[in-house]
Amino acid sequence: MNPDIIKERQNATFDVEKLTYILDGGLEKTKRRREIESMVFSDPDFKEEDPNFLSRSERYDQAVRKSAQMILKLREYGIADPEEIYCYKTMVNGNHHEAMGLHFVMFLPTLYSQCDPQQSKKWLPLAESFQAMGTYAQTEMGHGTHLRGLETTATYDPATQEFVLNSPTISSIKWWPGGLGKTSNHAIVLAQLYTQGNCHGLHAFIVPIRDMNTHVPLPGIVVGDIGPKFGFNEVDNGFLKLENVRIPRENMLMKYAKVEPDGTYVKPPSAKLTYGTMVFIRSLIVGESARALSKSCTIAIRYSSVRHQSEIRPGEPEPQILDYQTQQYKLFPLLATAYAFSFVGQYMKETYHRISGDINDGDFSELPELHALSAGLKAFTTWTTNSGIEVCRMSCGGHGYSRSSALPDIYVEFTPTCTYEGENTVMMLQTARYLVKSYRQAKAGQQLSGIVSYLNEAKQHRVQPQPVAARPTVVDINDLASLVEVYKQRAAILVELAAKSIQQEMQNRKSQEDAWNNSAIDLVRASDAHCHYVVVKLFTDKLGEIGDIAIHSVLSTLALLYALHGITTNSGDFLQAGLLNVPQVHQVSARIKELLSQLRPNAVALVDAFDHHDKKLNSVLGRYDGNVYEHMFEWARRSPLNATEVHESFHKYLKPLRSKL
Amino acid sequence: MNPDIIKERQNATFDVEKLTYILDGGLEKTKRRREIESMVFSDPDFKEEDPNFLSRSERYDQAVRKSAQMILKLREYGIADPEEIYCYKTMVNGNHHEAMGLHFVMFLPTLYSQCDPQQSKKWLPLAESFQAMGTYAQTEMGHGTHLRGLETTATYDPATQEFVLNSPTISSIKWWPGGLGKTSNHAIVLAQLYTQGNCHGLHAFIVPIRDMNTHVPLPGIVVGDIGPKFGFNEVDNGFLKLENVRIPRENMLMKYAKVEPDGTYVKPPSAKLTYGTMVFIRSLIVGESARALSKSCTIAIRYSSVRHQSEIRPGEPEPQILDYQTQQYKLFPLLATAYAFSFVGQYMKETYHRISGDINDGDFSELPELHALSAGLKAFTTWTTNSGIEVCRMSCGGHGYSRSSALPDIYVEFTPTCTYEGENTVMMLQTARYLVKSYRQAKAGQQLSGIVSYLNEAKQHRVQPQPVAARPTVVDINDLASLVEVYKQRAAILVELAAKSIQQEMQNRKSQEDAWNNSAIDLVRASDAHCHYVVVKLFTDKLGEIGDIAIHSVLSTLALLYALHGITTNSGDFLQAGLLNVPQVHQVSARIKELLSQLRPNAVALVDAFDHHDKKLNSVLGRYDGNVYEHMFEWARRSPLNATEVHESFHKYLKPLRSKL
Fold this sequence. Notes:
2 copies of one chain form a homodimer. Chain A has 661 residues and is of the alpha+beta class.
């Protein structure tokens, strides 16, 4: 164990283990998580080479092997609880993704929810036994979020009682679905349904794409891998071109909408049910943000405690880089953010489960708010985490660029969350739509409830450009409740500003739609402020649940840092709105410096509490024992370019070069 | 040609070709650049597979081949002007790096500048004929920017007249030098010189590391590749462990310092000369920032003009995504930044050459200012570009994640500039040191000249927290000269704030050094504001040189957008300092929206003017003809995972899985 890191742990003022329980949601959950971890880490079947040393094809190969292995292991151990499966898979996959993920996350769930009884009888046994391996093919090369724009057609032919599936253009080729390129032999294809000369919009069809025995693509199917990406090298995201492929009528998923044998179209009763899955996945992504950021902070903070560099006082030994104020300023606000997002992730999961219960009882009343919240928070947390990972990486100096640090992997595997499951800007605008609608309702005299109830005060004409100094100053920058209030007011003011911008555009004879587009910058800003308020509020609320005094104290410091750091980085908003005055903003900056010093002795303990196992982190910089350099050397020596002492290029190009000159 | 992009070009209000001349520095330079481009692009010897389809070893192999090829071609064509060589190499290397770069950039120049006459006679012919291929080994695993911390030792043994080189610890292993791992047979090693029992600090030694014939590592040399990185996969960054390696006394570079045969150490006369190279490379990096950002903007803006998505007005066809205000708000400020940095890059190059002349004449007076400026601007431009590339990538939706977009490559090849040649935070603090020193001189009554002369006004006690509204308002947000002034004042105020923070810390009984560290956040902020001011000023100055009315008009719009966007993103600074009042900040936001609309018709033409050849961009999204989708499909089909229809993993893992269940 590195002596620096031992000393850091001795300096901690709280019980790390107890904080881990809080993060896991209780002692029992921590215990179970560790049981599952040790199952995976002691299992010789999951021993593997660092994927960074492998070619793309080898990486995919290794990932398929692990996917197949996991299926067997989970059955062997009888692990069936979704959360435990998720935990098990996370351990196996480390910083990478699962080759067969879409089969479990999209193919099976879609069959479960959209097959009629007869279809269930046929398809579920096939899919559950992996005879049918599947994916979900929605996005096309030319079309992403806008479902109405999808071009793939499914035209019903009553003569043969078949659908003819077709990719009429290059831009209509299905593009991106995970597992589509090489792994799947079936795809649920989303296509515009045509029957009896009419288009009935998007519907789902089960399309066999490869022979179930030979795995060779079927006639009319052009399928393959979309090529190397920024990350996700384990996953064969694929393309699918359909050239008049015929499937039986029964392959349309018919639990809701139907096409009768004669071609008569029967409408679905309601569209609200698919809504829930989206909300669920976006809520999960909030938790993913917390995980990625807490991993990155763990690596950067542990490394900063063992790395010595330059000098603060001349003549003294090189200090730990964590002693530099600039390093603390980079990392501690992110550490606070990782805690904030962890608690927000917990909240989203709990809320989802609570509301799911209501939905099953037919009560959809809370769904719109959760939908808006999950969209905005998905964008807010992934954007923050995305840039935060890079700050962590760059705070590690040169070694952050080495794949041995794991930070490049964490980044490239995480960054797609900003785009998939709802592109972030689109998400922010969806939340804004809900906020503006709520604002208008409040203005019209309706009493709002829930998290947007702060808009009830909108009647008071808050936004008047007025001298900042003229405002009364009631904010206590050391009091979290007071800071929650000020974030709330900022959100209210920015929602109002956006709503007024739309109104003004419409007064300038713009259509409702153009007015919306011309106010989009303000709308995104309003959503961002709303989400920021929610995060500060939920972090503060969480403190109320924590009984342990020492932990309460350190988490309060983190929460305060989170709130105050958000104020400095957005100080213009608070000053413009007259919520803070200039001396207060200066006080905030000064207070932040104090909080950095205050957190310094607890920094390593605070990342330890996330309890990311070394094998999960897979980072030489983030090792628990702090023994960075010897392991970096060992890792480098295993690198494939060192397989031979003399690379063949010397004989091929360098030696001949001399004689040519 | 895609009809959308044709239309975009028809809408341009200025002559693209003429703007290209301005960016290149004149018609003649554009002509010559295009000649060199066509030499490279028509040369069948440089045809190659997309490196993204290759393994690490294949990528390195291809890069060595190209490096060797380039040496022969440059001789064949008689290209000898450093700028033309740079241009030629840029074309060949595309978005990637040169395997043998360090031989040219560090090994040869160090020999030229630090060999004594006898050493020159021996080493220059060897190095120029590539018998000796070399690199520059300074950084160690445990030591980066702080040169005094380096641990490698060179101990003189008068008995044999040799130096004994040694890596006494794991952390002292040389780590990161480009070309060290596999390519070089010599390294210039920086080591602490010991002779006659005394340490004389860092000196440079020529160390043979591989046999010049067989390329096998020499006894006592442990050398290899440091393993895969975030980018730079073409380059064999290496490690070097020296186990009591003996080299003759004559292998110490002795132009300045010397060790006599008996071990007597002779001091060098002055240390100022190495200073210049650092300044030169940092100035070059400013230009690299402009190039990387202009490439990224080219890709994102062209793609946004052919990509159709969602709807603004219901029922109408999907609009070009460049019509969304949020998309414009992401991309146009970055486009303005790319122009700003291009002009700053030109300025830095010219200034360097001017001052170099002075230095050769023995006049060092302007060097400290240029040193401070190049450090700060290196950090300022690389940080901005680093995050800007990612904004461009994410603005391309899903396809931005595909390696076919080239954006991931541009990012990973660029991001190390934030760390190498001076870690950015360290750079900002170096600039801050110069600013604080200048501030103190001004306060002491000295009259400053040059770019920091604005600090002369420091005597007037500017920073008094006072009500914002009470300040007189003289800023015209539509007038660039007025905005330059307001940026200048912001810089002056933040420099003063940082200086006062140090003073206050010292009053609290902190040592000078601790006071500095406790003010580091303010110091970085001050440097940032200084650099921001310089960029706004240089962009504005450049406009004065432009005679063409149409070009002047569009560049003025860009400059205004650059300046105003900087104000909104830092509005807190301007409000706190009372430089702008609240209504003005609202006006700035409104004005930015107008500028976005104003730039919209010229956006594609403005990126066309950068004149990045398709073969250099190597991006399916950024193609000049806008024919994105067909080429993306073609690219994907060439991907190695599509070499076979059925991947071996099916037979190995997936088929057997079924029978095991």
